[in-house]
UniProtKB/TrEMBL annotation:
It comes from the Bacteria. Pfam families: Abhydrolase_1. The keyword Protein transport does not apply. Belongs to the AB hydrolase superfamily. The keyword Thylakoid does not apply. Transmembrane segments: none annotated. Keywords: Hydrolase. InterPro entries: AB_hydrolase_1 (IPR000073), AB_hydrolase_fold (IPR029058), AB_hydrolase_sf (IPR050266). It comes from Pseudoalteromonas obscura. One of its GO terms (molecular function) is hydrolase activity. The lineage of its organism: Bacteria, Pseudomonadati, Pseudomonadota, Gammaproteobacteria, Alteromonadales. Gene3D superfamilies: alpha/beta hydrolase (3.40.50.1820). This is Alpha/beta hydrolase. Residues 27-143 form the AB hydrolase-1 domain.
Length: 290
């Protein structure tokens, strides 16, 4: 795959959505990042796209609501996972995009496979990076989780906006939490750190960190993902989340066509090894296109 050194991404904003865009082809590729990440999650791969691929495809690297440079939800609203499906539909409507190939990482993968199940005509193929199925909870934890979620809301409402004096410490903290290098953390944080009068804060909505009030049960999750007919590839890193290996086994019956590509790296393998992961994704997209 030849590298196009001129394919710089352009920033766009419409209807509350911020995204980065590269390519000028008729085939759309929508990239959905993980929880607390942003569209820069896919930047290392997008920078390696070949001229030939860019002539046939346009990539849309989306900041999900509350993340990156996209608009926060209103003060009285919360971030429910299920609403991200409608957020993606709103984004595609805003830019007049009837269908696309989807690349999802972690939470973005959960969103993508649920969109493929509920609105299959919008999804031409699925490339899932260390994420498959849905997160669910056992019935015995429903009440305690609900109480905890409300208590955390009250705590957050009483907290002032957080400011930091040292930008580099913010980057190092993100690297430690994400278990990746400072270089990868810098790529992610570059789109979410805001500087004002010598101090720093985050552009992401603090409410994103709040625990969910209600999560699906196991039977509900299986039912929602039943009969996914879209060609799907799961990229499974050898040092990724163990839960995704369990999810793969559990949700396998939900997919008519699922291939698994085992690769090197951790949960952010697509940032650690962008060339190798991009090769897998491009091959899957082109195969799905026929």
């Amino acid at each position: 795959m030849s590298i196009n050194k001129k394919n710089e991404m352009k920033d766009y904003f419409c209807n509350g959505f911020a995204w980065q865009q590269v390519g000028h082809g008729p085939n759309a590729v929508v990239c959905l990042h993980g929880w607390l990440d942003n569209s820069n999650s896919f930047k290392p791969m997008a920078e390696l796209l070949s001229e030939q691929h860019l002539a046939m495809h346009t990539w849309y690297l989306v900041d999900l609501p509350g993340h990156g440079r996209s608009k926060w939800k209103s003060a009285d609203a919360q971030y429910y996972f299920i609403d991200y499906i409608y957020d993606v539909i709103r984004f595609m409507d805003a830019i007049n995009l009837p269908q696309a190939h989807f690349v999802g990482h972690s939470m973005g993968a959960f969103i993508s496979n649920l969109l493929a199940s509920t609105f299959p005509n919008m999804v031409q193929s699925l490339s899932l990076v260390d994420g498959i199925g849905l997160v669910y909870q056992s019935p015995e934890h429903v009440k305690s989780n609900l109480i905890k979620a409300f208590e955390e809301r009250k705590k957050l409402a009483a907290q002032p906006k957080r400011w930091f004096d040292d930008r580099q410490s913010m980057v190092r903290t993100r690297a430690t939490v994400g278990k990746f290098s400072d270089d990868i953390a810098e790529i992610l944080m570059a789109r979410t750190i805001i500087s004002e009068q010598g101090r720093y804060t985050l552009s992401s909505d603090p409410k994103l960190k709040l625990p969910s009030t209600i999560r699906l049960g196991q039977e509900q999750a299986m039912s929602l993902l039943d009969k996914i007919t879209v060609d799907t590839m799961l990229i499974l890193p050898n040092e990724g989340y163990a839960q995704m290996r369990d999810n793969m086994k559990q949700f396998l019956p939900c997919f008519d066509t699922l291939s698994v590509s085992k690769v090197q790296g951790g949960h952010h393998c697509h940032m650690q090894y962008p060339k190798e992961i991009l090769k897998e994704i491009v091959s899957h997209i082109e195969k799905a296109r026929g």
